[in-house]
Fold this sequence. Notes:
It is a single chain. Strands 5-4-6-7-8 form a five-stranded parallel β-sheet, with helices on one face. A three-stranded antiparallel β-sheet has the order 1-3-2. Mean pLDDT is 85; it is low at 1-10 and 93-107. It has 325 residues and is an alpha/beta fold. It is globular, with a radius of gyration of 22 Å. Helix 3 packs across helix 4 (75-87), helix 5 (109-121) crosses helix 7 (141-161) and helix 7 (141-161) packs antiparallel against helix 9. The protein has 15 helices and eight strands. It folds into three domains: 16-87, Multidrug-efflux Transporter Regulator, Chain: A, Domain 2 (Orthogonal Bundle); 107-184, Methionine synthase domain (Methyltransferase, Methionine Synthase (B12-binding Domains), Chain A, domain 1, Orthogonal Bundle), CATH 1.10.1240.10; 197-324, Cobalamin-binding domain (Rossmann fold). The chain is 52% helix and 9% strand.
Amino acid sequence: MGQSSHRFAPSDEPIFNIGAVSRMTDISETTLRVWERRYDFPKSTRTAGRHRLYSQQEIARIQWVKARMDDGIQISQAIRALEQQEHDGHGLPLPSEPFAPPEGIVDSLGILQQRLVDALVAHDADLADRVLAEAFAHFPLENLILDVIGPTFYDIGEAWSAGRVDVATEHFASNLLRHHLLTWMRSGPPAYPVSPVVLACAPGELHEGSLLMLAVLLRRLRWPVIYLGQTMPLSELAHFIHEVDVAVLVFVAMTEETAHALAEWPSWLPEVAGTKRPVVGYGGRIFVVQPEMAAFVSGTLLGQTLREGVETLNRMLHEMNPVLR
């Protein structure tokens, strides 16, 4: 399917922290905080930990004000001019960067993904943030995760395996992407008042990129998520399951070694194995390259791709909660 070439308005969903906004606008974090205190500008929301989050629309407002200041207008006058323009219903002109390429031409997801890889390999965090902002301005977050971030995790991992990038570069790239995914996971829409999905890496599994992407996508669908992250000891889960009314317990294993470790889960969670409550699902790269490994692991193989996994879980959760249909 082809992509539309018209321009989209920036999203009003708060997903960027103050550090990312500072890099994208070239305005210091201190200045942004002072402006907010003195002028109630820019607008931000707060996470549970009281960290500021900004939307793309708010970043566009900041860039508009900064452009007026570059023309010699004082900050207070620039903010009043912006508010007057918005009050008059003229709206905010779309910025040329980072949200829209020249002439309103939208880069394909594939090109954006390659630009992101290049920025990460060059250790350019500012450019990587701008590429992600541009992608989010033109495509839904679901596409950004499935078609840009997912392939980027894969390409960086393959480059490290082949010796084309060093481990420091792989860690830099993974941590930058991980930071964005954690932010999006924590700023999703209000969750349904139902039992959560618990997400955990298999024992010994350190690669959590696909698990984080799954968490964000489930939150976008309004399913409550409890994220446990890397190398979860099975021995610690029994008490947790007793304390929390879990709907689905999802594991990710990427290697043969961690898949074999995961296969031991019924021994540590015999009550779950016997009652099938919560439902246990799993996935990961090893089950794609060695499909026969699924025979060793009890539970439901969620799919061969992240997209299939999300669709499977969404269907399962709706079946568990028919009132939400």
